[in-house]
Amino acid sequence: MRNAWFQVHKWLGLILAILIIPLSVTGAALVWDEALDHALNPGRYATSGVQEIAPARYVAAARAVLAPDERIVSLTLPDEDGGPVVITASKPGTRHALQGPPARTTVWLDPPSARVLDHGNSGTGLIRTLHMLHGTMLIPGIGRQVVGWIGVAMLLSSVSGLWLWWPTVGRWVRGLRWRRHRNTDTNLHHVLGFWIALPLFVLSLTGAWISFPKFFGGGPNTMGMRPNAPRPVPLAQPKLSVDAVVAAAQAAKLPGAVGKVEWPTDRKPVWKVSFNGTQTSVGVAEATGLAKVNPARPEDTARLMRRIHDGTGMGLGWQIVIFLGGLLPAILAVTGIIMWWRARGWKAELRAKQAARA
């Protein structure tokens, strides 16, 4: 049984090493995608203060740099930590070259002045490339499924690796010692493999869940939409102004400041206003201007799986675990290849000696 697990572990690692390394490294980098964006694009966050002005001023400033056929999707106001105002817009019917949501234009604005700090397409840039590489391996059409099967393979690798790590003689704590072998790379493989086995199992499971939501969750996909179904299109000329919508939502007197305003769509002509620090939102009907408080919905399993996988709202401790869970598999892949190559060498020498004796 041990030899069978060894063969499974070895060939999974060798065959998938070239895929596991970029998948793991990009996952580690994306844990800190906001900090990475700050470092790569400091101009987007060079605000002159935290005082905010009327939301309509931001919309007007953003429209000056948007294409005529682009429709505003949302407006996000900074939280208590400061930062820019962010407006996203999209062109109906446009998509990324690879599978994914429609391509969007993002506009960053200075809160006190509505001055445009930067704007760009969501389908470009290093961070977007990292997201697409991690989510689809840049493979059109079937990329998400390929990543999902890599997650299944890493599940098996975690289980088989833990089985092989378990000492065959003595208590299990003997496996925690450093010098189990004369080669440093082998010792590194054993030690790192043990400590990352459980986190890697969780990350692989959640990654497979995201890739195959219908299999795990019983639904069509994580967002509740049919595959290839038309996506909602924001209204080109809403009847209500964004200032009127915000005023109607604030009249509900929910705790917290307004955090995000989402535009009505052809499928659901209702504005959605979210408040910082609460899951409760306010819907404002486009036709009547009437506001209705939407109680917070319980988090579904699909959303929980995604948060566990990317660390959103999970605390610094788990984010560090995810970061290491991205780096260590790459190290394990490299050390595993070294171990396999060295084993080929001494097996060849052994066969040569046996042939000489014969």
From TrEMBL:
Source species, domain of life: Bacteria
Keywords: Membrane, Transmembrane, Transmembrane helix
A Pfam family the protein falls into: PepSY_TM
Record-annotated membrane-spanning stretches: 12-32, 146-166, 187-212, 316-341
Protein name as annotated: PepSY domain-containing protein
